[in-house]
From TrEMBL:
Top-rank taxon: Bacteria
Protein name in UniProt: Alpha/beta hydrolase
Pfam families linked: Ser_hydrolase (PF06821)
InterPro entries, A to Z: AB_hydrolase_fold (IPR029058), RBBP9/YdeN (IPR010662)
Length: 182
């Protein structure tokens, strides 16, 4: 019997605060946050290296739970890593539409957003009123990554301000990957 995978939390730019659903999952379920050396002026190579080390160091398979820039990180990592076979699935929430005129300059190192299909199952959850991406772009990005799209409606950037609490509906996606063998 396979052991349960390690759930790796991949926050976006500036990390996830204590009321963010990712932080709540970390506290409730014992998920492991991938710590980045620099949250405010992120460097793609550093973030990819930190994720690669976390996957390599996990005792078995992993499930990735990414928010915002963490989604773009996941795609960059998947394009470069030799460890993608260890990923049972990836929950990608509110990826930012980098390259827009209003994109924060601190995130330029993550451009362009990779367009290749992810080598593992993925679900992309987006909002119709996300200030960092529009719904049409999110649908197209889900298609490019081979991710199942879920339209959450008008929930902003799907963060602490979105009022999701412990967000059990999204946790059910993670639980599905945690129980199923590859």
């Amino acid at each position: 019997m396979r052991t349960a995978p390690t759930v790796l939390i991949l926050p976006g730019w500036q990390n996830s605060g204590p009321e963010h659903w990712q932080s709540r999952w970390e506290a409730l379920h014992g998920d492991r946050r991938v710590q980045q050396r620099e949250w405010f002026t992120p460097k793609r190579a550093d973030w990819v290296a930190a994720l690669d080390a976390a996957v390599r160091d996990a005792p078995g398979d992993v499930v990735l739970v990414a928010h915002s820039l963490g989604c773009v990180l996941t795609a960059h990592w998947a394009a470069a890593s030799a460890h993608t076979a260890r990923v049972r699935g990836a929950l990608l929430v509110a990826p930012p539409q980098l390259g827009r005129e209003d994109s924060p300059p601190e995130l330029i190192d993550f451009q362009p957003v990779p367009q290749q299909r992810l080598p593992f199952p993925a679900t992309l959850i987006f909002s119709t009123n996300d200030p960092f991406s529009d719904a049409a772009w999110s649908r197209k990005q889900a298609e490019a990554w081979g991710a199942a799209p879920i339209d959450l409606g008008a929930r902003g950037h799907i963060n602490a301000e979105s009022g999701l609490g412990d967000w059990p509906e999204a946790r059910a996606v993670v639980t599905k990957w945690s129980k199923s063998p590859i």
